[in-house]
């Protein structure tokens, strides 16, 4: 239990207990750094495991005490302004705020704790002071003696024993009991006979049947995690949990703070163990046809030698069929383990080629007084690998026989498929409905929808074949669109019923009369979002956001560079008015922005220098930002930098030449081939093409538009995008 000294000033508690072996992968510790913000209020950061930093306001200094078994961080008491670095004083309640209660009142009770079987004791001598940590049904200490009936340890409820069957009884205590029955007899032994006199076995030579093993199955790495526990009326916290069945050392972290910012921190280790333990070195999975030696360690923490049987059982996890004889020729092994030592055993395992279902593997060790076991379910993986090969086929007009694809001799053919590369224009058309129908209505996505409608307008204005095909696609009374459109221009003529919705979305998108109304609605939404300062928030009613304002100015600039137009002149004027206000806002921000914010502003303003020339201050800021950038770490930053150099400086200037040199370097870094097009290792090695990668590719294509090999590079990029999106 953890509680405040004065329950009126109750604290909140954050606590977690996890397998200490996880620290071998990454150290788990709540460290503290104390810093002051600009107006002088100190702050403390308390990073949680795998979580972002939590923020607690407090006053005073802090130092580390990580070398102590239980470390409450040293701090200045915010009430008395006194410094405490004696852990004993702090835990005994001499500092205001947090304290720990122990059942026997001694600080020594907070040394390392060992959970032995189902009781708890100090690691030093397993007797004396006891720290109570109560889990659900697993950590209940007991003072019950060991009952032995007719030479067999009795594990049931002794109250169910029929007294009329009692023939003789004897009680053993102390060294006499433990010499024969080990530490399980620490509370004494009651020997009962139902036929004649009790026979006392010779010490170390107890002959009795092995007891059934208790199989452990719960191997969670976290015993509990409570991010926020509040004290009860008396200032106490109650932590209830089910202890996992791992035989390991656990790391227990506690962090508590009061409403006034007083805090305390503690670390403890708890070891869960049994008098006799078996720990098999289980793999995480098996392959069909695998052969392996499964080794197990048997640990005897008892004070006498044990003799027992190591046993393995294998079951089909789906059908429950016993597969032990199929997996191994020998399923048991007699093993003796000296007191306080370890021994190992092993089974030879073979996985049948035909085994498909996962298997349950139970390994147990049982003696006449103790037993233990572990069970894990292991998947069985195929020893075959799925392999696909691709052959490029060029089809000409007219009838043509497809070539025969032959598999390698070691391969089993499973199927064949053909994929026809779509035309770039068709891929773009298919993507437009997703752009204009996006769910969010933030400023960024609102303009993206306008962009999608403008692109549809542009296609209808410039592509007569597309316009003619659309004019034949008339929807009447909810009927399906006629399947007679030109597949080379709009490849929807052979779509099945599952694609009808997409077909209708495409039809509506290219309905220019309807789209004009949609664009008006979207422009109104942007106008309602824009603040009086000209800035844009992320969402309507939000605060001014420099990044999203720069993003919109940047996007409108690219919109204009690509020659896109809205539905009519009135809509163009409304968009221009939005742009005027945003540029005035950004130009006023250059006085107090850091380098990261200035990068976005200079990038956005570069598209509008002719219509909105930069003043002297903005020009100096741009020169300072762009004069030297040799340490750019990403393709996105490199592409943006090249674009800015081309926009801000004349064609024959030294900076413009720097841009050309860096473009050539980027081209040489690219990987290019006729099949897959052009790509860069930074984005091509990932399994999935993320949204960030798509934006990077778009900026790279834009950067290369300033180079003499723009058409070649952009065609290669489009080819790679189409291949990657299959």
Task: Please tell me about this protein's structure.
With 726 residues, the protein is an alpha+beta fold. It contains 17 helices and 30 strands. A six-stranded mixed beta sheet has the order 11-10-19-18-2-17, with no helix packed on it. Strands 16-27-26-23-24 form a five-stranded mixed beta sheet. A four-stranded mixed beta sheet has the order 13-12-15-14. Helix 4 (424-436) packs across helix 7 (500-509), helix 9 packs across helix 10 and helix 9 (546-561) packs parallel to helix 11. It starts with a strand and ends with a helix. The model is unreliable at 32-141 and 475-498 (pLDDT under 50).
Q: Tally the helices.
A: 17
* Proportion of helical residues: 25-40%
How does the major sheet shape up? Answer: 6 strands, mixed
Structural class comes to alpha+beta
Estimate what percentage of residues fall within beta strands: 15-25%
User: Which sequence of strands runs across the widest sheet?
Assistant: 11-10-19-18-2-17
């Amino acid at each position: 239990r953890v509680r405040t000294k004065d329950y009126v000033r109750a604290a909140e508690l954050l606590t977690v207990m996890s397998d200490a072996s996880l620290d071998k992968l990454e150290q788990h510790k709540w460290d503290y750094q104390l810093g002051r913000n600009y107006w002088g209020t100190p702050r403390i950061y308390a990073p949680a495991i795998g979580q972002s930093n939590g923020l607690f306001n407090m006053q005073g200094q802090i130092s580390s005490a990580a070398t102590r078994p239980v470390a409450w961080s040293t701090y200045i008491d915010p009430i008395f302004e006194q410094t405490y670095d004696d852990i004993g004083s702090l835990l005994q309640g001499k500092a205001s705020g947090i304290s720990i209660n122990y059942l026997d009142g001694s600080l020594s009770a907070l040394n390392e704790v060992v959970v032995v079987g189902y009781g708890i004791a100090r690691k030093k001598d397993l007797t004396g002071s006891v720290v109570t940590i109560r889990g659900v049904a697993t950590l209940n200490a007991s003072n019950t003696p060991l009952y032995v009936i007719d030479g067999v340890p009795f594990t049931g409820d002794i109250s169910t024993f029929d007294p009329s069957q009692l023939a003789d009884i004897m009680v053993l205590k102390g060294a006499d009991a433990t010499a024969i029955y080990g530490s399980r007899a620490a509370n004494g032994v009651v020997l009962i006979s139902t036929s004649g006199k009790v026979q006392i076995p010779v010490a170390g030579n107890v002959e009795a049947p092995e007891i059934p093993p208790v199989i452990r199955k719960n191997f969670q790495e976290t015993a509990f995690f409570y991010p926020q526990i509040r004290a009860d009326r008396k200032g106490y916290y109650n932590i209830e949990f089910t202890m996992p069945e791992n035989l390991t050392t656990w790391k227990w972290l506690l962090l508590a703070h009061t409403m006034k910012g007083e805090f305390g921190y503690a670390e403890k280790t708890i070891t869960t163990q049994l008098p006799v333990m078996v720990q098999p070195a289980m793999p995480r999975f098996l392959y069909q046809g695998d052969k392996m030696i499964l080794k197990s360690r048997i640990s005897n923490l008892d004070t006498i030698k044990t003799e027992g049987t190591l046993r393995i059982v294998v079951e089909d996890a789906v059908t429950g069929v016993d597969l032990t004889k199929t997996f191994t020729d020998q399923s048991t092994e007699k093993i003796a383990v000296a007191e306080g030592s370890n021994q190992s055993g092993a089974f030879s395992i073979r996985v049948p080629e035909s085994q498909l279902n996962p298997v349950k593997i139970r390994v147990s060790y049982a003696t006449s007084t103790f037993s233990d076991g572990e069970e894990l379910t292991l998947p069985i993986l195929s020893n075959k690998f799925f392999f696909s090969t691709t052959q490029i086929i060029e089809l000409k007009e007219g009838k043509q026989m497809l070539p025969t694809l032959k598999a390698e001799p070691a391969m089993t053919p499973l199927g064949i498929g053909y994929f026809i590369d779509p035309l770039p224009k068709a891929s773009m058309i298919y993507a437009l409905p997703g752009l204009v129908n996006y769910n969010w209505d933030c400023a960024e996505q609102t303009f993206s929808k306008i962009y999608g409608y403008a692109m549809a307008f542009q296609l209808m204005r410039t592509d007569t074949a597309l316009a003619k095909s659309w004019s034949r696609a008339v929807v009447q009374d909810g009927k399906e669109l006629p399947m007679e459109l030109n597949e080379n221009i709009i490849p929807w003529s052979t779509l099945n019923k599952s694609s009808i919705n997409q077909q209708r979305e495409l039809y509506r998108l290219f309905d220019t009369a309807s789209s004009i109304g949609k664009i008006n609605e979207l422009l109104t939404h942007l106008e309602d979002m824009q603040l009086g300062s000209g800035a844009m928030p992320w969402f309507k009613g939000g605060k001014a956001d420099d990044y999203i304002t720069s993003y919109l100015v940047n996007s409108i600039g690219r919109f204009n560079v690509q020659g896109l137009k809205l539905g009519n002149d009135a809509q163009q004027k409304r968009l221009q008015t939005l742009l005027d206000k945003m540029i005035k806002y950004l130009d006023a921000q250059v006085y107090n922005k850091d380098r990261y914010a200035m990068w976005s502003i200079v990038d956005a303003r570069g598209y509008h220098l002719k219509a909105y020339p930069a003043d002297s201050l903005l020009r100096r800021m741009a020169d300072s930002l762009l004069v030297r950038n040799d340490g750019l770490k990403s393709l996105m930053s490199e592409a943006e930098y090249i674009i800015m150099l081309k926009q801000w400086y004349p064609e024959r200037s030294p900076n413009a030449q720097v841009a050309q040199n860096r473009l050539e370097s980027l081209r040489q870094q690219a990987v290019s081939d006729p099949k897959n097009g052009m790509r860069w290792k930074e984005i091509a090695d990932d399994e999935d093409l993320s949204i960030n990668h798509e934006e990077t590719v778009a900026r790279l294509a834009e950067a290369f538009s300033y180079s003499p090999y723009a058409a070649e590079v952009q065609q290669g990029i489009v080819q790679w995008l189409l291949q990657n999106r299959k």
